[in-house]
Amino acid sequence: GPGQAEMYAGLQELGVANGEDLKETLTNCTEPLKAIEQFQTENGVLLPSLQYALPFLDLHGTPRLEFHQSVFDELREKLLERVSAIALEGKVEERYKKLEDLLEKSFSLVKMPSIQPVVMCVMKHLPKVPEKKLKLVMADKDLYKACAVEVKRQIWQDNQALFGDEVSPLLKQYILEKENILFSNEISFLQNFFSPSPKTRRQGEVVQKLTQMIGKNVKLYDMVLQFLRTLFLRTRNVHYCTLRAELLMSLHDLEISEICTVDPCHKFTWCLDACIREKFVDNKRARELQGFLDGVKKGQEQVLGDLSMILCDPFAINTLALSTIRHLQDLVGQDTLPRESPDLLLLLRMLSLGQGAWDMIDSQVFKEPKMEAELITRFLPLLMSFVVDDHTFTVDQKLPSEEKGPIPYPSTIPEAFTKFLQENRIACEIGLYYILHITKQRNKNAFLRLLPALVETFSDLAFSDIFLHLLTGNLTLLSDEFALEEFCTSLFDGFFLTACSRKENVHRHVLRLLLHLHHKVAPAKLESLQKALEPTKQSGEAVKELHNQLSEKLELRKPSPAEVTETPSMELPLPTVPTPASR
């Protein structure tokens, strides 16, 4: 076929006879058998000792093709080993000269499946494959596919669009994996989105593939960062910030100094990575991080854009927010005000840099966001007063009650708290983490007191996937409260259902929670919730699927009609069979 002709066309250029030549010889000769014998002699393996061995193989019925093929395979293996050896020996320019000559000679045979591996091997070992050859490879889908990643890197670095096509599906896969974890049907306060250590996350398939594609190539690394910045700007999706940090740290793990030393965020990210591993910013690392921020020089402010993206990674925000809550509790014990704690001020500084990442990259104005004094002088002391309220209540419960009767838990929220959650992004983030904290402590009173403040928050943060993922996990610790009408009404009617119809993700999270805890909810309440959570015409597949799963579970819980009607008593006592505990 035409494919064959094309495949072997390269042989003639090298002065090697091919099928076409044999056809020509046979067409123009008088004694075909003699001609074939001569062709075999001229083009066979030129080893005198073979002259007697071949007829012997013929006697054993071994086809010549099989013999030539095995010799060929053997030679190819030797050649591949030799090429790899040449790539390591002698003076640099000499070895590359040898390889370039070899490529020149062999490239015309690149379409021959048997020779292709050798050509590919030569190219793989050349730090600079000639431009003309790269263009030929790029123009041919199959050749491009067969190329080693070392050769592809050389193609990609001058073809951003082609590189983008390769990277794009990986980035999509990465975002999808993150969302699958946030919406997972497994709900637990022990295992959540933030449980895997940074080291474990970096072993993920996408990070590993991107690391492999980049190699030590700074230009490709920069391209990937550019893609991540662009996508973050376009979608506001913070998982791209996580990938930015993971990629840098993955190259750090492999000690790729060619890249790490030129990324100005490297040492900052490395230090922050250690904090994320501990889920806490200790004093020593706090000093170190502060040193990096204070060390940003005039004229180099652009690095703040990169640092803000590293700090906008949800894993970084989670660590900073948890550390902030811990600091506030310590301050209550020490009778110290927030403004007197440099460590706390640094955490707030980093939180606001992270939360300001999108605006900074969008506006290209690289300066640290201003910290609002009120956050420090009014909001944080408010949170501390909640901590004090809890202490007071607990102590009061333990005191012998004189006639005064039990002291009720404070049920009102200061208006200032609600206002801060609506108008100040950092206050909102810290407020939400405080609510996660009291839920984890199974502090039902404090939870119900503050819950109404979550209905309206800054840019709907209380309805974001990460917060709802963590909240549903922590609520499993209060599972016994779900039997109480008052608790369910506050949580579902007062909070979740206010957003279900306008926010598909909230609909999904409530259904996840009910799938997990339905057996704790009073039957009447469960039925009204099942109705309230019916999918609408606009609902996506995920919501429909979850609602179906819930309905199936509830079907199984309903007693069957037979059990409801009274069974006539039998004369003989039946042996009692223990029923399996139904969930």
Descriptive notes:
This protein is an all-alpha fold and 583 residues long. It folds into 3 domains: 44-126, no CATH class; 160-371, no CATH class; 375-395 and 414-534. Helix content is 68%, strand content 0%. It contains 32 helices and no strands. α19 crosses α21, α23 packs parallel to α25 (425-440) and α24 packs across α25.
Short description:
By secondary structure, this protein is an all-alpha fold.
Q: Portion of residues in helices?
A: 55-70%
* Counted beta strands: 0
| Proportion of strand residues | under 5%
Question: What would the average pLDDT be, to the nearest integer?
Answer: 86
List unreliable stretches of 5+ residues: none
Number of continuous helical runs: 32
Briefly note the structural class of the backbone: mainly alpha
User: How many domains make up the 3D coordinates?
Assistant: 3
Distance between the termini: 68 Å
Radius of gyration: 35 Å
State the shape: elongated
- Which sheet architecture does the biggest sheet show? none
InterPro entries: COBRA1
Region (Disordered): 554-583
Organism: Struthidea cinerea
Protein name: NELFB factor
Summarize the helices and strands and which ones pair or pack:
Layout: H1 2-13, H2 19-27, H3 32-43, H4 50-59, H5 64-86, H6 92-106, H7 116-124, H8 131-139, H9 141-146, H10 149-156, H11 160-182, H12 198-202, H13 205-214, H14 218-235, H15 239-253, H16 257-260, H17 266-278, H18 283-294, H19 303-311, H20 314-334, H21 342-355, H22 357-363, H23 373-398, H24 415-423, H25 425-440, H26 444-450, H27 465-475, H28 485-500, H29 504-517, H30 523-532, H31 541-557, H32 561-564
